Amino acid sequence: xxxxxxxxxxxxxxxxxxxxxxxxxxxxxxxxxxxxxxxxxxxxxxxxxxxxxxxxxxxxxxxxxxxxxxxxxxxxxxxxxxxxxxxxxxxxxxxxxxxxxxxxxxxxxxxxxxxxxxxxxxxxxxxxxxxxxxxxxxxxxxxxxxxxxxxxxxxx
Length: 156
What we know:
The protein has helices spanning about 25-45, 55-75, 80-85, 90, 100-115, 120-135. The chain is an all-alpha fold.
C-alpha cells in the first residue's frame, strides 16, 4: 500500500480518481463514522487545529456532516444531500484558509487512521488515491508560513 502525499502546486485541481465504493461494504455506516471521528480527533490536536471547532457540540456536528458526505460518496445513503443540499465543498470551505501545507497535515492524519483499518489494502489504496486528489480541491490559500514541518519525511 502506498499512502504517499504529494505537495501539489497551488491551484492545481486534477480530476479525482473515484474511490472503490466496495469499501462501504466493509466499513458500513458505523465504520465510516468512526473513521471520520478518529480523523477529526487527530485534526483537533494537529498543526491545523485552528481550522476546526473547539466547542464539542460544533465538533460533533462537523464530524456528522463530514461522515454524511463520505457515506454518500461511498455509495451509502444520501444523508449529506438530505441534510445540507448538494456538497459544493470548495464553496463550503471557502471561509477557511486552507493552504497546501494544511492539506498535507489533513492527509497525514487521514493516513494514520487508514493504517488502523482491517480491510483489503486495495480498497484503502483506492480511498486514499481519491482523498489525495480530492483534498487539493479544498486548498484555497497559498503557502502557509505558520505550519512548520519537523522534517521532510512528513511529506512522504
